[in-house]
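Exercise 4. Each item below gives a protein and its sequence. For each, produce the structure-token representation.

Item: Nitroreductase domain-containing protein (Candidatus Sungbacteria bacterium RIFCSPHIGHO2_02_FULL_51_29).
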Amino acid sequence: MRVFGLGTNKIMRDPFFKIFEKKFFPALSGGTAGTQLYTVYTRGATVALPPPRQLPSVLLDAVLRRRRSRRNFLPEQIKKEELSDLLYWSMGEYEDSQARATRRMHPSGGAKYPLECYVGIYEKGDINPGMYHYNISKHILEHLPFVSAENIRRCFHYDFAQTAPVVISFSYVHGRMQKKYGMLGYKLGILEGGHIGQNLYLVAESLHIGISAIGGMDYDVAHSEFCLGSEEHLFYHVILGYCAQ
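Answer:
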């Protein structure tokens, strides 16, 4: 099991930075205390997501009672419009005019937002199959040409995860929390993953899309495949797809 490297103020750097060109790796924008940090991948092509639509008018108590983990997925890609809705209403960003601030759909300790979102597309459709990073600030997908989506999918321990049409993976970026929260930061990050996961469940249920959260995978292999440094760690995944009736 990997150690997050907590309890130190020293920022650990990935040794690969000394070997490969910097363009292979993400660049952080922002960086001052109290501001949001975004990871941006610029090497691959981008996919513009449609503007999010208003969610169906359903009673919250009804959606909560219908919430289930479903895994009998059809071999069909989720429509781009619905993927846009899922991502935006679960973790998207919006301007709060009254507070004069930028907010997201989920709470975050100190508004540090230490999680990054990766989207694996595995069926042909509106979006080419492959691995993508969800750029929250621009509401776009950034293709990661150096990551094999199939290799990532083979890291999962469950057969239903290895055949899922869409896999959303979350990583924790330690440096965004460490200065303010120290060793508490990673716990707050894990809780934040749960907040987003519940949002995903409720939005998916309202859109009649199957969903199941999982945690088991070969993390060492996946971490290497993503070329993540010592400050970023995958820890939580949600698989999605249309389900057979």
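Check: The longest strand covers residues 232-241.
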